[in-house]
Specification:
By secondary structure, the protein is mainly α. Helices cover 70% and strands 0% of the residues. The chain has two helices and no strands. Helix 1 packs antiparallel against helix 2. The radius of gyration is 16 Å and the shape is elongated. The chain starts with 11 loop residues before the first helix and ends with a helix.
Length: 61
């Protein structure tokens, strides 16, 4: 059986979305180590970041 083919390079917007998704997942996973009172700040920061990324994706597509 041969090795699976590498997927073609993602367009810039898709690559940005993929990096953002990975980063957001890591930051959400880190919430377990933070006191609940600190969660709001993380959610606010993630909301801001996701809004900016979605805005930039809208402009690039």
């Amino acid at each position: 059986m041969s090795a699976p083919e590498e997927p073609p390079e993602l367009p810039e917007a898709a690559a940005l979305a993929e990096r953002t998704l990975h980063s957001v997942r890591q930051r959400l996973a880190s919430l377990d180590r933070l006191p609940a009172a600190d969660h709001v700040a993380v959610f606010d920061a993630l909301h801001q970041e996701l809004s900016e990324v979605l805005g930039s994706l809208d402009r690039t597509d």
